[in-house]
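Page 47, continued from p. 46.
Same chain as before, 177 aa.
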Amino acid sequence: MYSSFVFSGVKIKNYPNGQTRFEIGVNTDGLPNGLTKEYDVEGNLISEKKFQNGVRQGMSKMYYANGNLMTEWIYRKGVRHGIALGYYPNGIMKDHGIYLNGKLNGLSKKYYPSGRLKAEMVFREDLIQGVSRIYDEEGLLKVQSTYRDGRMIRRIAYDRKGNIIQNQEFDPLYKLP
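Result:
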């Protein structure tokens, strides 16, 4: 994977206290190239990003102060492209989705800190589309909404027994004043 990178060296930038702030791989033109690491003032790793001739390319990761992974995003030619994962500080998955050319596309899910499913929705070109569902901590359906081109056209809310307590339809062409 790195064979196409023109690698020249590593630049190191420090905080006033002497701790390393950045380790930046650079090419012969001085552009970020290869792995770049960023640290907080105490020396904890807070991010890792890969570059190819100054453009973000490949996996980028951010970390919590406790060292656990916060996010994983894949970049292609400087824009998010691929799976995107988010985590809670305890390491449990928080959310995941898929980016195509910088826009959310496909099924995205969000989770409670317990790991239980909180919401699921489908995106097309960064717009929510179709049926989305929101669940309570016990896994019971709370709200089901239907979207068309990013606009909610129907919302159904349920009580804890699964009975409909609200059923609204919306004009998909209505625009706020």
